[in-house]
Design goal:
105 residues, mainly alpha, globular
């Protein structure tokens, strides 16, 4: 089933994105991106993406985009080509993020 007995929040429609946005508001976008860069440096691209996406959702998209591109490339380089769907998703996201970054300039 859908309930894993890990958290009460599993029982309710909550927004993990809203919670992350609150944490970014408290910690600051720069601090969150520093943590994201550190996560990527140690190979945790998924955590880096989660943090960068939280920053992007709080009006920090321009600052977060380069890191998001790098994290997607990392995922693609380290196993993301094994699944047709994963490869397609990652390459599409890289292309989209690069286009958005070009529009920022």
């Amino acid at each position: 089933g859908w309930f894993r007995f890990a958290s009460t929040t599993e029982l309710y429609p909550d927004s993990a994105d809203a919670a992350l946005a609150e944490l970014v508001a408290v910690a600051g976008a720069d601090a969150a991106l520093d943590r994201a860069r550190a996560a990527l440096a140690r190979g945790d691209a998924v955590l880096a993406l989660r943090l960068a996406e939280a920053v992007a959702a709080t009006d920090g998209a321009e600052a977060a985009r380069p890191l998001m591109i790098e994290a997607h490339r990392h995922l693609l380089d380290y196993g993301g080509s094994e699944s047709f769907w994963e490869h397609g998703w990652l390459t599409d996201r890289i292309r989209t993020l690069e286009a958005e970054r070009a529009a920022d300039v």
